[in-house]
Design goal:
This protein has 292 residues and is of the alpha/beta class. It is 46% helix and 16% strand.
């Protein structure tokens, strides 16, 4: 199976996939439903999403496991099925990816906070361990720890992956632009602070996802690259900032809008470029054409 780092070294820039939640809701997932449970009950639909992104030209396919820790699944009464759900998520994406694409095992926040005592560090790290081990067993090539805002949680996840699996480690944070033009997470973490901590912890790839459209990611990538000139950077951008139209949340950037900015993102230092909320296979196809 391909190595993410080896693929980046060989091809310089890779294209990743797009939104999963948006796609799942379009296929019938109800508000309040558990996206990860669909790996068990709607395997063909989940496989269709992964295949759609492979057909669109993505080099990297994520797994339907963003909320797959037992701490998150407990809300749905599925905590005891965490290992099974994550293993099958990876098996589905592996099937779609074949032997020539990288499978990124998606690992999102637990929704709990160490700083407030919601969970112990030991329990959080063990939940990430269980998830990562299952993703590796299912065929993932790397763990994509994403949408993080707090360093302590992200570092728990990085340690869990590195100490218990052979997966490469990707870790991305979600930043918002402040009035002074700087970028910070909800927990106050800057791109520079993130880069310093994650590189020190041994993450193989770092970056940013969600929270911004393609153009908004350029400044974040530049700040990371100013801190470290060599670390591979991954970006999963939204299709613009969400807007409410006729009572519905929409993401306004078209495939062409995102494709026009993609080369600028690569010039700033991004090595893997894909989509997050609101993006579709059409967006990924346009990004792939623009980059290649």
């Amino acid at each position: 199976m391909p190595s993410l780092i080896e693929s980046i070294k060989k091809r310089k820039v890779l294209v990743s996939d797009g939104a999963w939640g948006t796609f799942l809701f379009a296929k019938g997932l109800k508000p309040g439903g558990c996206p990860e449970e669909w790996n068990l009950s709607h395997r063909s639909d989940v496989l269709d999403i992964a295949r759609s992104y492979a057909d669109a030209g993505a080099d990297c396919i994520e797994t339907n496991s963003f909320g797959g820790t037992r701490l998150k699944l407990k809300h749905y009464g599925l905590d005891r099925k965490a290992s099974e759900i994550n293993r099958i998520a990876a098996e589905i994406s592996r099937e779609a990816a074949g032997d020539d694409r990288v499978v990124l095992g998606s690992m999102g926040p637990t929704g709990l906070f160490l700083i407030t005592g919601d969970v112990t560090e030991e329990d959080m790290e063990d939940a990430f361990r269980e998830q990562a081990v299952a993703l590796e067993k299912g065929g993932a090539d790397a763990a994509c720890i994403e949408t993080m805002s707090a360093l302590d949680e992200a570092l728990c996840a990085v340690r869990a992956v590195k100490q218990n699996t052979g997966l490469e480690v990707v870790c991305t944070f979600t930043f918002e632009k402040a009035a002074d033009g700087s970028y910070r997470t909800m927990a106050g973490v800057t791109p520079t602070a993130m880069a310093e901590a994650l590189i020190g912890a041994g993450a193989d790839v770092i970056g940013t996802n969600c929270g911004n459209g393609m153009a908004g990611m350029v400044g974040i990538v530049k700040e990371i690259r100013a801190f470290d000139s060599r670390v591979p950077i991954l970006v999963h951008a939204n299709a613009g900032l969400p807007e409410i139209r006729d009572g519905k949340t929409v993401f306004p950037e078209t495939p062409g809008d995102m494709a026009r900015v993609a080369p600028e993102l690569v010039k700033a230092g991004a090595c893997v470029v894909g989509g997050c909320c609101g993006t579709t296979p059409a967006h990924i196809s346009a990004i792939a054409d623009a980059i290649r």
